[in-house]
Every structure is written in structure tokens, then in C-alpha cells.
Design a protein that fits this description.
Number of helices: 14
Low-confidence stretches: none
Distance between the termini: 34 Å
Mean pLDDT: 95
Largest sheet: 6 strands, antiparallel
Number of strands: 8
Order of helices and strands: EEHEEEEHHHHEEHHHHHHHHH
Structural class: alpha+beta
Helix content: 40-55%
DNA sequence: AGCCAGGGACTCC
DNA sequence: GGAGTCCATGGC
């Protein structure tokens, strides 16, 4: 794939960079659809506009290095596809759209995916939008709000989260925000933990169970040796196996199979499942 | 109207 | 440690 990186923009082929699919697959919630072919993407206080111009897609930002990494241009997805199909040939027919996993901010991912539990994307986005408006910083250049820092959000009380519509997750958010302020959850130290150590650390946080923890590990900490098991994956598993297995067993089954490629393999399977009608 | 949304905590045994 | 139950809210 051809990537042109300039001082304040990245130009890629629309064919190999489907921004709509990338943003609307449920991995990220902090973006705004400005028009049919223009998106605003917000990661903490970093902002980029993404414009589709026929066969080219242009990413513009004053922090272009941040977004070069954010959009994961250092990863060779063709190679990942090839290896996955090598391990499991029936993936050949499931891999359609080019996949791309965003390298999101760990802390923002933690907050976002606590909100995501037992919820739908539209409402998740609404809750997080209101969170940004209430506690983030207004950025006049882009006419949008940053995702609030831990410091900013620590002002919020349970009632405030109720007010923005977080429902019963408001309690989880309050407790987790308190926990995140402890040295035990210093992000700079967390990134050095092994995947298993980091997962059990994340499970200490309120509102984070196995599924949400795996989402945070994959989307927020870039750990690819995790296989997220949700309702869709459970459906998929029941299609090719009559054995009754719980989520942990299903996850372990796939991790043993795909190793460091597990996260990607899960996304291909997930995309295939939500797009096919059964 | 009633069910569901890419679950988690809590309480039983 | 497995199975049930409850949990706010809004879209459909």
C-alpha cells in the first residue's frame, strides 16, 4: 500500500484505507461524521480530519506523527492476512475489507469501554460525546472538545455521569477513576507488564470484566495476543463446534491457534459475523 | 410494548 | 467456579 507522509498530512489510497469501516466497526467512539466523506477523529487532545477524495483519502493534522502511529501505518496488514490464512485457510473467504486497528490512548480506552458494556454504539457515542463537552477542553480550531484528562474527569461525581446518561455504569466510572489515580495504575508502568499481568490488573477496576479488559488490551495497549469473546464470537463458535465451552475456553482455544495474531483474527471473524445475516 | 445492546457485579450453591 | 439475576437507558 502506498502511503505519502507530509508535514501535516498523510495521503493513502481509498481502496486500502476504508475510513468508514475503520471508524464504524465499534473499536473507537470518539469521532464525528462531518459529511458523507469527511470525519473528525479525536484522541485525547489530538485531532485529525479525514477526507475521502475519490481514490485518495487524506488525513490532516498538526500532529501528523501522532496520527501516523494512531492509524497504525507501521503495521503490514497484508502480511497479517497472509499468516492468518496460513494458519486457518477458511479465513480466506471471511477477510473482505482491509482491517486496521487504531492505536488508541490507553486511559481513554478504559473509560470508553466501561461505557460500552451491555450498550449500543449509538448510545455509547452519545454518552462519551456529552462527557467530552462537560469535562473536556474546547478546541476552537476544530469546533470540538478534547477527551477529558483523568484530572479533568476526577471532578465528576456519580450524579454527573447519570446526567450524561451513563446509567448504572456511573458507579463503575466513579470507582475506576479513583483507582486510576493510584500509583498502582500509573500508565507508564502498566505498559511494561506482560499481557496476563496487565489483564489481571485491569480486572481490578470497577466495571471491567474479561470482555472489556480484552478490548482495552487490544485497542488501548496494542496487545495482539488477546481474543475478545463477545456475543457474536460465541455465535460463531457454536456454528462450527457442538462442544459447550465458556468464554474463557473459547478465548484460549483461539489464542492457542493464532498466538500474537489473535486480536486481528478475532476482528476478521467479528466483521464477518456482523455482516452476514443469519 | 417489549426486546436488545460487542457485560459486569453480586449472590447464591 | 458455574448459574441466575439485576442493573439504566434509548433505539428499533
Amino acid at each position: 500500500m502506498k502511503i505519502i507522509k507530509q508535514e501535516n498530512k498523510i495521503i493513502v489510497d481509498t481502496e486500502s484505507f476504508n475510513i468508514k469501516a475503520i471508524l464504524e466497526c465499534g473499536q473507537v467512539f470518539s469521532y464525528h461524521k462531518l459529511t458523507n466523506d469527511k470525519y473528525l477523529v479525536v484522541s485525547m487532545d489530538n485531532v485529525a480530519t479525514v477526507s475521502i477524495l475519490q481514490d485518495k483519502t487524506i488525513i490532516e493534522s498538526n500532529k501528523i506523527d501522532y496520527f501516523y502511529n494512531f492509524f497504525d501505518f507501521n503495521t503490514d496488514y497484508k502480511e497479517i492476512e497472509r499468516k492468518i490464512i496460513e494458519i486457518s485457510p477458511n479465513y480466506k473467504e471471511m477477510i473482505k475489507d482491509t482491517l486496521r486497528i487504531l492505536k488508541q490512548d490507553p486511559y481513554q480506552t478504559i473509560i470508553s469501554f466501561i461505557v460500552s458494556a451491555n450498550n449500543n454504539i449509538k448510545r455509547i457515542k452519545g454518552i462519551l460525546d456529552r462527557l467530552c463537552i462537560k469535562y473536556g477542553t474546547y478546541m476552537p480550531n476544530y469546533k470540538c472538545y478534547s477527551f477529558p484528562t483523568l484530572n479533568q474527569i476526577s471532578l465528576a461525581k456519580k450524579e454527573d455521569f447519570i446526567e450524561i446518561g451513563a446509567g448504572y455504569r456511573s458507579d463503575y466510572l466513579c470507582k475506576t477513576i479513583k483507582q486510576l489515580q493510584q500509583p498502582r495504575f500509573n500508565m507508564d508502568k502498566l505498559i511494561n507488564l506482560s499481557t496476563n499481568e496487565l489483564k489481571s490488573r485491569l480486572l481490578e477496576l470497577s466495571g471491567i470484566g474479561p470482555k472489556v479488559a480484552d478490548c482495552i488490551l487490544f485497542f488501548g495497549f496494542g496487545r495482539t495476543d488477546v481474543f475478545i469473546v463477545d456475543t457474536w464470537i460465541k455465535k460463531a463458535y457454536s456454528l462450527f463446534s457442538s462442544e459447550i465451552r465458556n468464554e474463557k475456553q473459547i478465548s484460549d482455544y483461539f489464542i492457542k491457534k493464532f498466538g500474537e495474531l489473535s486480536g486481528y483474527a478475532q476482528q476478521y471473524l467479528f466483521n464477518y459475523m456482523i455482516n452476514k445475516d443469519i
